[in-house]
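USER: If only I could read backbone structure tokens as easily as an amino acid sequence. It would mean a lot if you studied the pair and described how this chain folds. Here is the record:
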Amino acid sequence: MKHSTTQQTRRGRGPARRIGRSLALVLPVVLVLSGTLAVTRVNWSGNASNSVLTASDASVADVSRARSLAPQDVLRDRLLTELQEKDPGVALTHLQQAVNGRPSLARHCSSIARTLGRAAVRIYGPSRAQSYARPVCDTSFASGVLAAHS
């Protein structure tokens, strides 16, 4: 008789336990989604005319992306833009000035210069890109040109 009481007690907790486990799995997901939706509904821009921000708002996305990038990534992106708008010589000069002004960027100088070299080959072709090479960051620009040309 003792055995049947134990089985009946266990069966009684079965459905409640399953419901509890289901809630334990579903409830955090619901809370996260509702919190995310609530945050997107808040007017974070300070502009009263636009009370709902959307994920596709480019200006907000650009600002948040710039905040999340490391200084070397911001510098690399800015120099790539200069390379496209002006020429690789201007970008290399500004790279050298940035490294001189902020020595913590020196360890990233070579990779930025190689990236500029590869981009210069895509834009100007190998011969013209090589003509801009100079000894910035131990000739890493020239190695980038060579790597992109090979």
In short: Residues 10 and 95 are 72 Å apart (CA to CA). The chain has a mean pLDDT of 77. The two ends are 85 Å apart (CA to CA).
